[in-house]
Amino acid sequence: MIDHVSLAVSDLARSVLFYERAFAPLGLSKLVTRPAMVGFGKSYPEVWIDLRSGMKPLALDNGAHVCLRAPSTEAVDAFHAAALAAGARSESAPSLRPHDRVKYYGAFVVDFDGNRIEAVTFPKE
């Protein structure tokens, strides 16, 4: 299974402020700060934000996609609202998404560098 992921960002300070706000409703906080990277998680860094100072702006559909588990539909809603308030672009508002194998509730946002961050939960019937 995946232990952690890294997201490339062009402005570490701006991105850290953004992710502190966006991740809070999911229970993730800033745990480790290094000169060119910051780790967020619950008990250890699960998501790293890595400075790539030479990074060129990406096309809107070229960033990474990371999906994080939320404890409830309310947490998905709060994640989406916090991310938008912190400057994200909404790619998909919170909603129930019935699919062939599983029904889930999720939302997508896009950060300043084109990374697509999703929060998801699986509501009980």
Report a brief summary of the structure:
This protein is of the alpha/beta class. The protein has helices at residues 12-23, 73-85; strands spanning 5-9, 29-34, 37-41, 45-51, 65-69, 89-98, 103-110, 116-121.
Describe the 3D structure.
The protein is an alpha/beta fold and 125 residues long. The protein has one domain (5-53, 63-121): Roll (2,3-Dihydroxybiphenyl 1,2-Dioxygenase, domain 1), CATH 3.10.180.10. It has 2 helices and 8 strands. The chain has helices at 12-23, 73-85; strands spanning 5-9, 29-34, 37-41, 45-51, 65-69, 89-98, 103-110, 116-121. A 4-stranded mixed beta sheet has the order 1-4-3-2, with helices on one face. The protein has a 4-stranded mixed beta sheet with strand order 5-8-7-6, covered by helices on one side. Helix 1 packs antiparallel against helix 2. The mean pLDDT is 93.
Calculate the terminal CA-CA distance, rounded to whole Å. 27 Å
Architecture in CATH?
A: Roll
Rg measurement, Å? 14 Å
Number of structural units classed as domains: 1
Give the low-confidence spans.
Answer: none
Shape category: globular
By CATH, the topology is 2,3-Dihydroxybiphenyl 1,2-Dioxygenase, domain 1
Q: Report the top-level CATH class.
A: Alpha Beta
Order of strands across the main sheet: 1-4-3-2
Structural class: alpha/beta
Number of distinct helices: 2
Mean of residue pLDDT? 93
The tally of strands reads 8
Order of helices and strands: EHEEEEHEEE
**Major sheet:** 4 strands, mixed
Give the amount of beta strand, in percent.
Answer: 35-45%
CATH superfamily annotation: 2,3-Dihydroxybiphenyl 1,2-Dioxygenase, domain 1
Q: Please give the share of residues in helix.
A: 10-25%
